[in-house]
Amino acid sequence: MTKPAVYRNAGDLLPPPIARFVDVAESCKPELISTPEKPVGLIDAEKDEKALLGWKAVSRGSVEDMEVLKTGDSVIIDFGGHRTGYFSFDLQSYKFATHPADAPCRLRLVFGEILSDVAEEFEPYKSWMCKSWLPDEIITVDWLPQPVKIARRHAFRYVRIEVVAVSMHYGVRIENPIAHAVTSCTASVPPLSFASAGSEISDEDKTVLRRIDEVALRTLRNCMQTVYEDGPRRDMRLWIGDLRLQALANYKTFQDTLLAKRCLYLFAGTPFHEDGRLAATVYEHPQVTSGGQSIVDFTLIYAAALLDYVEFSGDKDTGKDLFSVALRQAEIAVGRTNSEWVYHVENIGGMTDFGAWHFVDWEPTLDKVTSIHCIIIFSLKSLLSLSKLLGLPVPTISTPTSSSVPITEVIEKMTASALATMYDPSLGLFVSGPKKQISWASNAWAVMAGVAPSQEVAADALRRTYQHPDTVIAMTPYLHHYLVEAFVKAGLKDLAVKHIKGYWGSMVTAGAETFWEAWNPKLPTVSPYQDFHINS
Amino acid sequence: MTKPAVYRNAGDLLPPPIARFVDVAESCKPELISTPEKPVGLIDAEKDEKALLGWKAVSRGSVEDMEVLKTGDSVIIDFGGHRTGYFSFDLQSYKFATHPADAPCRLRLVFGEILSDVAEEFEPYKSWMCKSWLPDEIITVDWLPQPVKIARRHAFRYVRIEVVAVSMHYGVRIENPIAHAVTSCTASVPPLSFASAGSEISDEDKTVLRRIDEVALRTLRNCMQTVYEDGPRRDMRLWIGDLRLQALANYKTFQDTLLAKRCLYLFAGTPFHEDGRLAATVYEHPQVTSGGQSIVDFTLIYAAALLDYVEFSGDKDTGKDLFSVALRQAEIAVGRTNSEWVYHVENIGGMTDFGAWHFVDWEPTLDKVTSIHCIIIFSLKSLLSLSKLLGLPVPTISTPTSSSVPITEVIEKMTASALATMYDPSLGLFVSGPKKQISWASNAWAVMAGVAPSQEVAADALRRTYQHPDTVIAMTPYLHHYLVEAFVKAGLKDLAVKHIKGYWGSMVTAGAETFWEAWNPKLPTVSPYQDFHINS
After folding, report:
1. Where does the Glycosyl hydrolase family 78 alpha-rhamnosidase N-terminal domain start and stop, copy by copy (chains A, B) (predicted)?
2. In terms of domains, do B76 and B128 share one?
């Protein structure tokens, strides 16, 4: 047998981790706190045509009311809310006559963030994403009664337990079920008071916004483990794009800075390429390793994440230590501009080019040229602000035509080229690509980058894009965030609140206990991965 | 919801354990020794019409030759021989490009004692026995590479590993697979020398017998855990009938007495009924508990097991301590004889009567009256021998007609009634039931009980039964043993050796590494449980 060309260690083909940065990251690793939580009760999932995701929960009493389960029986335990953590219970046997539990008990457990997870079958599975990520387990317990603790971490509100097999001589009950919620977040945040911005918001809206805020805080807390995880149910990993948003929300809420510092150092410590390019994601387990892919826009957003961190924490040492890492990302991207100072790569939509995946959003029809171009400017402006904050001179980078150009000059050139080639004066908004595609992404990022010559032009572009019948909207909350941030930046606070209520509010209405990675209220079960059950 | 009538604790409906006996048993609990064993190599199972069980192994090289496995791939590791124990390995990921193992790895493992276990699908499963006893596991490993140890004990030669799911970015190899063999047996036994009985046996026969002896010793060693397990693959429990044969073989081979003593005390400590009746089986886990059923013939054989133990070990204290327990079993059974001193119960074939299951063998057509009647005599004779060995007076029991009858008198009466009603002089053999069924069981037990008036009559009965075209043969090695023991007792040593070669030899030919619970060489895949895969 001949072995195919494969690489044994995660580090093969990638530069080795940079020990000094990784060491700092490890020194900032937070403790995880575990909190035991009792269930609310038992439920059945029933079909409900009126529900956005098609299901409603019907109470089946308390856990103490659970019947004795035989082969083929199942039960759904509702823990209320959502947590990241572990599940334990006592597997108690009930015999029907003189026999003790005379054979092992085989169970299947399904962990549900939402009702459809535990109400629907996972087969047939249609995604290209690895099936092993589906949140189910099969266990066999040899001797009963027995305390059981599921070793793998899950993210869940519901646990469905199916009895795959018990012998004819006994049945089982799930007694003392406990969810052990884990997080590194030690702070708590009171409900929104609307103290400073209350008068113009109706009481009804306040209720909606408080509920959205509550779900947002839970999402954030449940993602705060030993890194900011993009989602605690599936890949459980740190990604630059998610890091920036989670840290930013955190500075306004839980105010943790240790985790942000750790994450910034983890990326610095695990470059994707010897040219200094950052990886899009970092693995913590079994050891700290580069994630094996780079996302152009994420490398650029690292600068903004570093700026946010230094601004909030005041930790200038970290800012200085990591400044050149952030600067290098912009330098590499600027290196891909053409003679007109327009970002240009072959096949910007492809995600298989080694180290040149452009993400922006999961929407497959999105033209990304304008977005990426503007994200470069956004990154350069973040670097400029950071250099001022750190008392550094205006940074310079090498470009295709010069070995040392001040970034102020690059910002000017790229802003001018964006206005010249990406702004459509007749439409009054930003477009992207040869087909002049109108999208939220292009306009949000143009506004974030400050490309519009005035706040009025910015606000008009956003408003027109938002209302345009042909506009390409966002699939991920990630891009929805930048639309809202752009609204705020352009002075469109009303639109920001309206959009938050409409978009995040619709997830809450659909039964979200935490916000999802992908969501389109008009296509509730659509998935960027071709199977709704693998979304998270 | 109303709960059905069920009983929470194993002890409900049964008398509590007798602490004094259980304490002695626990003081005799042996240490388990774990030995790491490396695999022989990789194999494929190929169909082979000439093989008794339909399969042959084809080498696929060494474990080091294993290809990188992707979703849907599988591999069979051959450890050679058979052991009871645990399985561990390193799950190594091999990436195809820059990505590390970016999703969990889900594996299915199937543990095979014989090739068909790993070559055939378990579905559709046809047995009434609990499906959870099938020797497979599904595990999900979150972070790779990772050392993996399967927590549950298995009995195996082969391990089939199927990759249920890995992501598109990587494959896996099973590296450093180790079988951790466990047993409480510390002794070893040299191959059969035939020193005292060599001249009349051909070299060819010696080879066959040495191979049978080797498999028998392995079976015994692998069943020697913290009790004599009836089989280490499935129920892993101690049963009286199996105990007697395993201990008897042990006295001639590994010469352990501690385990036998522990097992005798475990039964004494966990009675099935307050009248003193023994349970057929004892559970060790999660705590020492009566097995919840009683088998009449097993309760009677306890006396023989105690006699064997005292004879070999010289431990008269244990003999005296447990004598009344053994005697009580015979007394209860004698209490079921009618006025003609013939054993009589309603529905002797039924196994659902509370505490009155008559086993003898798994063969469903077997008439068991003669066997059980003779086993009572065999038990009484064991008690008589034991009382002599211990220097006790002739024991007395209460019978339906008298409160104190010497067992010598009961033996005499029951032997006479057996000869009068169960021996057919015209056929020259023992029969059973109204249809005068001829069977190995009836004649083996009549000879074991010494019912025949001479060795000649005994030998003739066995020979005729063995050759008779209508005879009901045995399904279990358990009853085959008593046929062979009866052959020896009747002076038919040649027939004993011939039968051992034919029966146990056919299991070896069929690929047995240990002897099975059930086996009919003419119907190789027949099962007392309706599904061959649940035999063990």
Report:
1. 39-180
2. yes
The nearest CA of chain B is from the CA of A33 a distance in Å of 21
- Asked whether residue A220 falls in the same domain as residue A152, the answer is no
Residue from the list B101, B145, B286 with its beta carbon closest to the beta carbon of A145: B286
The domain in which residue B351 lies consists of 203-534
The answer to whether the Cβ–Cβ distance between A133 and B286 falls below 8 Å is no
Over residues B495-511, mean pLDDT: 94
Q: Are B461 and B428 in contact (CB under 8 A)?
A: yes
Q: Alpha carbon of A216 to those of A32, A499, A513: distances in Å?
A: 20, 15, 9
Q: Do B10 and A100 touch (CB under 8 A)?
A: yes
Nearest chain A residue (CA) to B102: A235
The token duo for A224 is 């705060």
CB < 8 Å to A71, chain B:
130-131
- pLDDT tens digits for B370-399? 999 999 999 999 999 999 999 999 999 998
Segment A483-534, tens digit of pLDDT: 999 999 999 999 999 999 999 999 999 989 999 888 888 888 888 888 888 8
Residue A123 Cα, gap to closest chain B Cα (Å): 14
Residue A282 lies in a domain: yes
| pLDDT score at B351 | 58
Instruction: Tally the domains of chain B.
Output: 2
How far is B368 from B440, CA to CA, in rounded Å? 11
What CATH number does residue A276 fall under? 1.50.10.10
Q: Cβ(B167)–Cβ(B83) under 8 Å?
A: no
Kindly report, residue by residue over B165-175, the tens digit of the pLDDT: 999 999 999 99
Neighbours of B13 (CB within 10 A): 15
Is there a contact between A102 and B291 if contact means CB atoms under 8 Å apart? Answer: yes
Same domain as A393, residue A260: yes
Name the 3-class secondary structure at A115.
helix
Domain boundary (A182, A214, A242) is at A182
Q: How far is A313 from chain B (nearest CA, A)?
A: 33
Q: What's the CATH number where B146 sits?
A: 2.60.120
CB spacing of A94 vs B354 below 8 angstroms: no
d(CA A398, CA A410): 10
Question: Which of A60, A63, A140, A288 would you mutate first to test chain B, the one with the most B CBs within 10 A?
Answer: A140
Query: Under DSSP, is residue B270 helix (H, G, I), strand (E, B) or coil?
Result: coil
Per-residue pLDDT tens digits for A281-298: 999 999 999 988 899 999
Give one DSSP letter per residue of B417-458, joined into a string. Answer: HHHHHHEETTTTEEEETTTTEEBHHHHHHHHHTT-SSSHHHH
Place of tokens 């509702």: A78
B288 and B388 both lie in a single domain: yes
Last residue of a domain, one of B181, B214, B241: B181
Q: What is the CATH number of the domain that holds A70?
A: 2.60.120.260
In a domain, B54, yes or no: yes
Contacts of A143 in chain B (CB under 8 A): 283, 285-286
Q: Are residues A177 and A259 in the same domain?
A: no
| Same domain flag for A272 and A142 | no
Chain B: give the shortest CA distance to residue A350, in Å.
16
Q: For B408-430, what is the mean pLDDT? A: 98
Taking CB atoms and an 8 Å limit, are B96 and A6 in contact across chains? yes
Cβ contact, residue pair B129, A13, below 8 Å: no
Q: What is the pLDDT of residues A172-227, one digit of tens each?
A: 999 999 999 999 999 999 988 887 765 678 888 899 999 999 999 999 999 999 99
Is the pLDDT at B292 greater than 90? The verdict is: no
- Shortest CA gap B536–chain A (Å): 14
Residues B176 and B209 in one domain: no
